[in-house]
Amino acid sequence: MKNIKLLLVDDEISILQLLQLLLKKEGFEYIYTATNGHDAILLCEKIHPDLIMLDIMLPDCNGFFLCNELRKKTSVPILFLTAKVDDIDKLTGFDCGGDDYITKPFNHLEVIARIKAQLRRQKLTEFSNDDTSYDFGYFQIYERSGRLIVNKEEIFCPTKELQLLIFLCKNPNLIFSKKQLYEQIWGEDSYGNEATVTVHINRLREKIEPNPSQPSYLITKRGLGYKLLKSVRMAE
Predict the structure, then answer these.
(1) Which of 30, 57, 58, 77 could disulfide-link 99, Cβ–Cβ 3.0 to 4.6 Å?
(2) How much is the pLDDT for 130?
(3) Domain count of the chain?
C-alpha cells in the first residue's frame, strides 16, 4: 500500500489511534488525521488523499456537511464511520456523496476490507488500459479519466455514481433490479440496502437528464428496476 494516502476524520482520539495501528499493520504508510471539519478540509487540500474516512458527529460541523464540502475538492472514495445507525442517516450519507457506511462499534477486519475494496475500485476506474468512452448524445462518459460531459459541459461525478453510470452504459437497454445494481457496484449482498441505489439513480438523473423529473435516458421499469436507453428522441 505504498504511496496511498489516507485521511481519517474523527473527534475520538482513541478511534484514530486504533485505526492508525490497524492500517499500519496492513502496510499503509501515509495516514493523516483530523479531529474537526476545518482541519480536514485543510489537510485534503494539502495532501490530496486517496481515500477519506469521516465520522458524522464532529465538534465544528456534521460529517454530512463536511462530505459535501470535500466533494467540491475531490472525487476519491469517502467512507462514513459512525455510531448513527438509522436508515435515514445512511441515505443522507450516500446522498451527500459518500461511498460507503460503517457503523460503530466496527469489526476491524471489515473496516480494512472495505477500505481496500474502495481503493481497488478507484484504481480500476482511473487506470484502465484505455480511456473507453460512451456517447449517449446528450452526455458522454470516459471510463479511464472518469470524465462526465453533459450538454458539452464537464460535470463532477463521485466514484459510486461514476461506477454505476459506467456499468449501465456498458449494458444499455437492459433492465437491472436494485438488488442486482447494488451487488454489482458495492460488491456485496444488498441486505435491504436497495434504497441506496435509488439515491444514486436520482443523483445521476440530476446530472445526465435534460429534465430529471421526466427522465428520458435513465428510466424506471415499475416492479423490475432501471435501464439506460441508448437511443433517445429529445422531443419525447
Answers:
(1) 77
(2) 57
(3) 2
The grid cell for 205 is 438523473
Q: What is the CATH number of the domain that holds 89?
A: 3.40.50.2300
Residues 121 and 158 occupy one common structural domain: no
Preceding peptide of 105 cis, ω within 30°: yes
Q: Residue 55: what residue type?
A: D
Of residues 87 and 172, which shows the higher confidence score? 172
β-pairing, 51-54 with 30-34? unpaired
Residues 122 and 140 in one domain: no
> Residue 87, class by beta-carbon neighbours within 10 Å (0-12 exposed, 13-18 middle, 19+ buried)?
exposed
Over 80: is that where the pLDDT of 188 sits?
no
Domain CATH code at residue 191? 1.10.10.10
Q: Is 144 part of a structural domain of the chain?
A: yes
Question: For residue 236, what pLDDT is reported?
Answer: 38
Q: What Rg value do the Cα atoms of the chain yield, rounded?
A: 18
> Which domain covers residue 159, as residue numbers?
133-228
Any idea which of 17-26, 151-160, 209-218 has the lowest mean pLDDT?
151-160
Cell of 92: 443522507
